[in-house]
Design a protein that fits this description.
Layout lengths: L9 E7 L7 H11 L4 E7 L5 H10 L4 E4 L13 E2 L1 H6 L4 E5 L2 E5 L2 H12 L7 E5 L3 H12 L4 E6 L2 H10 L7 H4 E5 L3 H4 L5 E4 L23 E4 L6 H9 L2 E3 L2 H16 L5 H10 L1
Parallel strand pairs: 1-2, 1-3, 4-6, 7-8, 7-10, 8-9, 10-11, 11-12
Antiparallel strand pairs: 3-5, 5-6
Length: 282
């Protein structure tokens, strides 16, 4: 793949700390090249204390759009001119479009999760979900599920008050939020498994080999559908595979959130299969 850089090349990127591990530069640049768009996508490592200066610099340099990853997804909201509906509910932004210095923030994680899940499970509005975790990723997943019409979602978190805050914050999203969302403590997961169809881990547990299990994974049943948004086959997913469950790691969510960002920035249909190939080659 030959990319020609000239005076008309547009710049996109990702800000985070750290950010060198990001898989986005390769698959976004591949998408621009395939679509015939004269643009590149590069990583920018930004320390938390430099975030405001970085956003000011993005305006000044006319960087056309950027993704936001940890630890800036919540803090960056202070420096944007407009927030989309999903950002206002989720409380985190991962995609920003620069419209001649006017910065609008989006969250494509919700759409990314839903589109990824549809590869595994084309229809799921009648399924009962258990979401583990109550952070930004959890809020994005829950937002997407409510928008898709899911009627029963249990939110398990070590601090139940954090899960209860999601119910409170989402109260104006759907008139029946109080009947859809059910905050529960982590130690109740095993009792709930018999009435759950889909288990989704949105925490970082499983990223490191020494992490303690979220619950007793031997209690997973073959009929469960198991999703972990971490980009690898975690112990949770290994057990799901062993049991014969349908399962999915975080790569489809990463792919589709990036595809949605591409669409927001360019107004063009994203070349999903090109992006997938570039992602899998890394």
């Amino acid at each position: 793949m030959e990319i020609k850089i000239n005076g008309e090349t547009e710049v996109y990127g990702i800000i985070g700390y750290p950010v060198k591990h990001s898989k986005s530069p390769q698959f976004q640049t591949s998408a621009f090249f395939y679509a015939g768009i004269n643009a590149v996508y590069v990583p920018f490592q930004v320390r938390p204390e430099d975030l405001k200066k970085a956003v000011d610099g993005i305006r000044a340099l006319s960087i056309k759009g950027f993704n936001v990853t940890v630890p800036h997804k919540e803090e960056v909201l202070k420096y944007l001119d407009e927030l989309s509906e999903e950002v206002r509910y989720i409380g985190a932004c991962n995609t920003v479009a620069n419209l001649d210095g006017y910065l609008k923030g989006y969250n494509t994680d919700a759409d990314g999760f839903i589109q990824g899940l549809k590869e595994l499970l084309p229809s799921f509005s009648d399924k009962r979900f258990l979401i583990i975790g109550a952070g930004g990723a959890s809020r994005a997943v829950i937002y997407g599920l409510i928008k898709e019409g899911v009627q029963t979602i249990f939110i398990a978190n070590r601090t139940v008050k954090k899960a209860e805050k999601i119910v409170e914050d989402f109260s104006s999203l759907h008139r029946l939020v109080g009947e859809i969302l059910h905050p529960v403590p982590m130690d109740s997961i095993e009792k709930l498994l018999g009435s759950i169809d889909v288990i989704v881990n949105t925490t970082s547990v499983g990223l490191k080999n020494e992490d303690r299990p979220l619950f007793d994974y031997s209690k997973i049943k073959p009929e469960h559908i198991v999703v972990d948004i971490i980009y690898k086959k975690t112990p949770l997913l290994q057990e799901a595979e062993k049991k014969g469950c349908l399962w999915q790691d975080g790569l489809p969510m990463l792919l589709y959130q990036g595809a949605k960002a591409f669409e927001i920035w360019t107004g063009k249909k994203p070349p999903v299969e090109v992006m997938r190939r570039a992602l899998l080659q890394q």
